[in-house]
Hints:
Number of strands: 0
Distance between the termini: 19 Å
Strand content: under 5%
Radius of gyration: 14 Å
Amino acid sequence: VFRKYLDQYDLRDKDWNQIQEDVSLISGCFIFARTKSLKQIGGFDERFFLYFEDFDLSMRLKRKDYFPKIQIYHKGGNSSKKGFLHVRLFVISAIRFL
């Protein structure tokens, strides 16, 4: 039921070697920030146990520090196999995020 909706946030299937684009959110697989900036924004928001914690953090960091010329490459990854529990946690966090 949620698969089509959830897939728009799952970026695993893109060939990033061929695609360059500006992103407004950074996945948790790569978070690179100054300690000072993390402290100033209060770090991770504890309301997000799993999923969207990285989106929230990246949006708040973007308001603080923004470096449009940084390029990041992430090869593969299967750290979160999707079962019912993951979908449930995703939906709960998505509601909180919105």
